[in-house]
Write a structure and sequence with these properties.
Blueprint: H1 4-11, H2 18-23, E1 27-32, E2 44-48, E3 51-57, E4 63-67, E5 81-83, E6 86-88, E7 95-96, E8 102-104, E9 122-123, E10 125-128, E11 131-135, E12 147-148, E13 158-165, H3 169-174, H4 182-185, H5 193-199, E14 203-209, E15 212-222, E16 225-234, E17 238-240, E18 255-264, E19 267-275, H6 282-288, H7 310-315, H8 327-335, H9 353-370, E20 386-387, E21 394-398
Parallel strand pairs: 12-20
Antiparallel strand pairs: 1-11, 2-3, 3-4, 4-9, 5-6, 6-7, 7-8, 10-11, 13-19, 14-15, 15-16, 16-17, 16-21, 17-18, 18-19
The chain binds FE2/S2 (inorganic) cluster (FES) and fe (ii) ion.
């Protein structure tokens, strides 16, 4: 349970709020590269951290992210003309470049230098792994871009997808830090009732790391073996789906990096970056996005009760919600809490130990920033580590072994 002011502090992402300022110190996914597929293609609306923006790809292929409303009198630049290396407002022809400079004000007298006095809202962008990342914080504080495993993969080995959740980012990402729910929410085989008895109540640990936190869940398999699952929370709101504890990819092994990006206080954009050693085929790409429609909306969503099937719930799966991607079942659990979960009404137990640690870590990060210190995982030259071995892992160990042994396959530095 949190006090009301703490809940507000952690869930509010607008500009000039403590968490909003924290979020603005990191590179955040703003859209998929495929949404602006070619130079001079139509611009797209983007809402990020409560701000309405427009993304466009200019004639040279550079992506710009501008305030949606024209600096002149506020017409939406979404309707603008994208040509000649700039985005032009359709009302009086003011033209902007990707850096927010006003290039033309054709309705002003020819000798006017009005345009030089105006700078429109424009956030720097980087295109990596099929995702356009934006930095919305103070220019002087702009960090380096962290070098994760996917940073150097080529686009054939990557398949990013996204979907919007109608709830606050924190309750959404808390699901990735809550190992206990997997035995219930994601139990798609009720026949295997031994599973619930065996691993319904794991023993839990949490530890702070340089990049955020790691949660550890340990389950007893039998008298001789334990099953270990670790989950990494990467600041400000990223996570990694647990996979085998190997440094290299196995041929068919798909890893998933997740970004839970606040659209505003009540909506979250989930980006899942699937990656694999072997290139993805077109059919595989199709299948990895078969749970969303052409507008990136989940086919199973709150408006249709997630297509829950009560007969399936009785006979086949714990939820009765079929899932191509587990995020569909998670979506039901987290959206149905209400758009901003009221954490003053919770009853937290042992199984929430890692969530409690996570909230504490985030509150400390917010306080650190308020005191002028860099929060965790702001990358500068001085701490520019190699994060390519940063993973969440799962695997079986002999009973009595230290859970850390599960990460030995990763080598000495996991970031
Ligand atoms: S409102 Fe955009 S140019 Fe006038
Ligand atoms: Fe889940």
């Amino acid at each position: 349970m949190l006090a009301q002011n703490e809940n507000q502090l952690l869930t509010g992402v607008a500009a000039r709020t403590p968490m909003g300022e924290l979020m603005r110190r990191y590179w955040l996914p703003a859209l998929l590269a495929e949404e602006v597929p070619e130079p001079d293609c139509p611009p797209v609306r983007v809402r990020l951290l409560g701000e309405d923006l427009v993304a466009f790809r200019n004639s040279q292929g550079r992506v710009g992210l501008l305030g949606e409303h024209c600096a002149h009198r506020g017409t939406s630049l979404f309707y603008g003309r994208n040509e000649g290396c700039g985005l032009t407002c359709i009302y009086h022809g003011w033209k902007y470049d990707v850096d927010g400079n006003v290039l033309e004000t054709p309705a002003e007298p020819p000798n006017s230098d009005f345009k030089r006095k105006i700078r429109h809202i424009a956030y720097p962008c980087k295109e990596v792994a099929g995702i356009i990342f934006a930095y919305m914080g103070p220019a002087l504080n702009q960090p380096l871009f962290p070098r994760y495993e996917w940073f150097n993969l080529n686009i054939e080995q990557l398949c990013p997808v996204k979907s919007c959740l109608e709830c606050n980012y924190l309750q959404a990402i808390e699901g990735d830090f809550d190992s206990a729910h997997t035995s219930f929410l994601h139990n798609n085989n009720l026949q295997n009732s031994a599973r619930l008895k065996r691993d319904g109540a794991p023993s839990l640990e949490a530890e702070d790391t340089a990049y955020g936190m790691r949660a550890i869940a340990i389950r007893k398999v039998d008298a001789d073996r334990i099953y270990v699952r670790t989950s990494s929370y990467i600041m400000p709101s990223f996570s990694i789906v647990p996979g085998p504890p190997t440094e290299q990819f196995d041929e068919d092994d798909i890893r998933g990096f997740r970004f839970w990006v606040p659209i505003d206080d009540r909506n979250t954009q989930l980006y899942i970056l699937n990656m694999r050693k072997k290139p993805f085929t077109a059919a595989e790409r199709q299948s990895l996005r078969s749970w969303i429609d052409a507008d990136y909306r989940r086919i199973r969503n709150a408006a249709n009760n997630y297509l829950q099937d009560r007969e399936q719930q009785r006979t086949i799966s714990y939820t009765g919600i079929a899932a191509v991607n587990p995020a569909e079942q998670d979506g039901c659990a987290t959206e149905s809490m209400g758009t901003i979960c009221d954490r003053t009404k919770e009853h937290l137990g042992y199984s929430d130990k890692t969530i409690i640690a996570l909230r504490k870590m985030l509150l400390k990060a917010v306080n650190d920033l308020a005191e002028g210190k860099d929060p965790p995982h702001i990358i500068r030259e001085s701490n520019n580590a190699d994060f390519s071995r940063l993973r969440s892992v799962k695997g079986v160990l002999r009973a009595g072994r230290d859970w850390r042994e599960i990460m030995e396959g990763l080598g000495p530095n996991d970031g």
